[in-house]
Amino acid sequence: MSRSLVAAASALALGTTVLAAQLPASAAPPGPALGLPRGGAPAAVGGATAGAASDASAASAAAGGDELSVTTRLADRREVSAGTRAYSIGFEDGRFYANGWHITGEMGGVWTPPMKMVDGVWFGLDGQWVGPATKFTSGWGYTRYDLPDTAGLEVARTDFVPDGVRGALFGLTVTNPGAARTATLSVDAHSELMGQYPWGFSGVTPNASDNLPDKGSYDGRNLVFTDDGALPGAPTHHYAALVGTSATPTSGAIGDQYYGPQPGHRCTGTEPGAPADPKPSACDDGPFGKGTGGELTYSLDLPAGGSRTVWLAVAGSDQGLTSARAELAKALADPDAALAAKKAERRALSQMTQLSLPGDPLVQQAVEWGKQNMADLTQTATDLQVRWTNQGKQFPPPSGTVDQATWIGAGYPDYPWIFGTDAEYTAFAAVSVGQFEAIESHLRTLQQVSDILNNRSGVVTHEVVSDGSIWFGHDSRTQNADGTTSYDFNTDETVKFPSTVALLWRWTGDNAFRDEMYDFTVRNLRYVTSQLDADHDGWPEGLGNVERGGMGQEKLDNTVYYIRGLYDLADMAKAKHDGRTFSWANNLARKIRDRFDGTWWYAAASQYADSLVDPGNVQSFQKHWIGQTPMEAELQVDGRTQAGLAPYDHGTAALAGRENDCYSGTPPFSTGLFHTGCGGGANGQGEKVIFGLTTSIQSIGEGNYGRLGAGQQQRYTHALADPMFAEPATGGTPDEQPGAMPEIFPSPDQGANIDRCWTCRSMFMQAWGNYGTAWAVVHQWLGVQPDLGTGRLVVVPQVPQGQPSVSGDRIRLGGGYADVAASVSGSRYTTTIDVEQAVGADQVWIGHTLPRGSRVGTVLLDGQVVTDATTRTTNRGLEVTVPTAAGSHTLVVTTS
Predict the structure, then answer these.
(1) Cβ(817)–Cβ(878) below 8 Å
(2) Phi-psi region for residue 336, left (φ > 0), alpha (ψ -120 to 50) or beta?
(3) Which of 407, 406, 420, 416 has its CA nearest to residue 454?
(4) What's the pLDDT score for residue 30?
(5) Is there a contact between 628 and 673 (Cβ–Cβ < 8 Å)?
(6) Most buried pick, 68, 217, 687, 885, via CB within 10 A?
């Protein structure tokens, strides 16, 4: 969503260095000025289309590198360029079509949270619009478009968003293959100043339909757009955005008609054809758009055989025009240097957790690009006015303010803001790749918002828009006429929070962060114990993460994560010498854990019940994905890692029971885990929709039980990786943006995103699915188990069946790094580590995980025979460990 960091997360200047700090120290409107045609590309370029060439993205992925390209169906594929204070969402043909559903059709364009600035920008040369791109390239921190020749000139575009700047940059590179000439460059922009909240759903008040009209002007250099006023019942706002370059235009004009080559067609959201049509490319605006537009023209001198790049900036602020002008100046100060810095920053992020997986390069690249996904989703906003909207029913005065927040957004384009549960899963991926500061800041934001909203009750909020509006996650509930209870928050987010804090503490050794969060984590679990267990049976009541009706009062995921959370709280309490909390949490965890399997195991299906129905704790088995959480959750018991809550026989049976077409997809669909298996759910119809999260839960569960090979964990890690590079459902191309993991994968009940309508799509980039790849490799394959809050580090790898070796260099731990390599050759199991002193591990154990039932023959540490190695059988297998110290060491275990 530390000990010797360049800068602590709390000191980051409005997100300027949030990613760099992820490193240890070491009137009637005039007509178109150029007479460019409206509504389509002119005849001179009309034949240029994207999608004719064969796609090479899969090969690019296999080869690695910092770019991935795609050439097919570009008008159907969304993309993002993002920084910490702004982001731009368009389509891979270089156009900007309406898409998204929170605010119908408005979730794309250029945003600086919590405010949208423009729907899009478009370029023309000498009276001809630049046509659709023929190739799109996704790079680390930028995007690039190969554009068709226009007016005898070669054209390309690069987009990026500098971190810490509330603006986006669009670099049009024009190459003149002939004699020196002067060309006329035109730039169109269409504004849409509006907030990320309110949304456009029926009944929401105020509503996106109350959106105020923008005003436009030309100040002699820039297009200037403003929106000053107030929505019904809301405070006055002062939105402003500017569009311009560092050059002085020859002319400028304002008018609603400026959409570049696009016709400006407004879709309503009521068109027939869903979920397939209309496609985004049929829609230029949505029902709530009240923007205006403008056009700038420039004289562009082009040398013979030379090139020029013109950097166009879109910048703005929700603090008025003066602030917006300052942001424009920052954006245009030195775009070339800013782009170079952006690339360098992203390369630096990539240098942490450098994997070598010769037996599985697909997963290696998925982790590599997952780092960039999480960085793209890392955002900062200021002055969050925390208010409870009660799912859009009200808009009261704020309960308080959070001055600054940094977070890892859930997904683009409709979930870019702050979530509880998303962060609690994404955290596992973030620590695996060294992105400590962003997720620490996310947890800090959740704590601050939750305590303001919920009067320090301990309830963790669910969904926070970047202006501070809370849709769901308030500590309140309603007794229904039928005796059931409706909750305004999810139990799962509250029980997971202590474990997420403990996770960060163990990986960073940051006792200050633990201490900052500690009181809140105690209140989390005290609340659940006293307020969400009316029948005092130990199983928490309330909503979980299935988000479907018809379940019993007590949910499986809440119970599993409650047990884990109690153990994690006890661990932190022990380190803080808080004996009272330690005894309470540890004893309660043990008591509930001892009763868990006998209560929740549903023998008739060899699975775990999804929920318990009161009175009587009657098992309800509806085949939801949460049935795999008893295997996915990892416990820390008495200072030792326990992979999985379920006993081995039940865990392996439940995992194997989902590796079939009732519970998981088959090609050409994704092979990931359905939300709800065949015949399941309250309606008995199942829900064969494959999410990145559900697939991650299965992946990690498989890994916890040593099931790493083909058809087991590999089935699910590949299901997570395929949409990023080459999925069968889209003809061997990425789902949408190359290198981006989407929210939902092609499924029997929901096909590929590129085949769906403008408001029917899932997120094209979602953070939490990286849990199932990054954590699987770093924590399970490489066996990295830090407990740096207590100065300990265990490394006990397990090489996946069928792979010769795995390795990871520069795995960030504490204030330093560690390298880990593991290999298997016949009966010989080798582990090599190199742990920097700066990691802060006073005690280090090196080991290897062997198949269950193995017999250890010899153990060598640095060439010397070891006679006192520790062996223990876990759900993973037979773990052999030997104590050592920081530095370089090699362990060789030979089985007999």
Answers:
(1) no
(2) alpha
(3) 420
(4) 32
(5) yes
(6) 68
CA pair distance 316, 291, nearest whole angstrom = 15
Average pLDDT over residues 300-312: 97
DSSP 338-385: HHHHHHHHHHHHHTSSEEE-TT-HHHHHHHHHHHHHHHHTEEEEEEEE
Give pLDDT tens digits for 607-643.
Answer: 999 999 999 999 999 999 999 999 999 999 999 999 9
Position 720 scores a pLDDT of: 98
Could you give the 3-state DSSP secondary structure of residue 864?
A: strand
Instruction: Give pLDDT, residue 63.
Output: 43
CA distances from 733 to 276, 407, 725, 800 (A): 19, 30, 6, 27
Pairing of strands 792-795, 843-850: parallel
Q: Which two tokens stand for residue 660?
A: 């079939």
Give the up-direction half-sphere exposure of residue 398: CA atoms within 13 A in the CB hemisphere. 14
Decide if 23 contacts 115 (C-beta within 8 A).
no
CA 789, CA 841: separation in Å to the nearest integer?
9
Q: How many Å apart are CA 82 and CA 93, to the nearest integer?
A: 18
Pairing verdict, β 237-244 and 618-620: unpaired
The token pair that represents 632 in the structure block: 């996915």
- What's the Cα-to-Cα distance from 16 to each of 21, 84, 240, 578, rounded to whole Å? 9, 7, 21, 38
Residues 589, 570: contact at Cβ < 8 Å?
yes
Strand partners, 309: 173
CB contact at 8 A, 175 and 153: yes
Contacts of 891 (CB under 8 A, 6+ apart): 830, 831, 832, 846, 847, 848, 859, 860, 861, 882
User: What 3-state class would DSSP assign to 633?
Assistant: coil
> How far apart, in Å, do the first and last CA atoms of the chain sit?
46
Residue with tokens 């769901």: 472
pLDDT at 65: 82
Distance CA 432, CA 429 (A): 5
* Torsion-angle region of 791 (φ positive above 0: left; ψ -120 to 50: alpha; else: beta): left
CA distance 802 to 781: 13
* Structure confidence by residue, pLDDT tens digits, 24-44: 544 333 333 333 333 332 222
For residue 532, report the phi and psi dihedrals to the nearest 5 degrees: -125, 30
Strands (E), 750-855: 765-766, 784-787, 792-795, 805-813, 816-825, 828-835, 843-850
Contact in structure between 717 and 741 (CB atoms under 8 Å): no
DSSP 411-468: EETTB-SEEHHHHHHHHHHHHHTT-HHHHHHHHHHHHHHHHHHTTTSSPPPSEE-TTS
182 φ/ψ angles, rounded to the nearest 5 degrees:
-115, 130
Find the helix or strand (DSSP H, E) in which 274 lies: none
More confident position, 59 or 651: 651
743-759 burial: b if 16+ Cβ within 10 Å, else e: bbbbbbebbbbbbbbbb
The candidate with the shortest Cα–Cα distance to 169, out of 378, 346, 336, is: 336
Backbone torsions φ then ψ of 293, nearest 5 degrees = -145, 180
Contact 288, 104 (CB under 8 A): yes
With a CB cutoff of 8 Å and minimum separation 6, the contacts of 205 are 198, 232, 233, 392, 393, 394, 395
| Of 778, 813, 816, 810, nearest in space to 797 by CA | 778
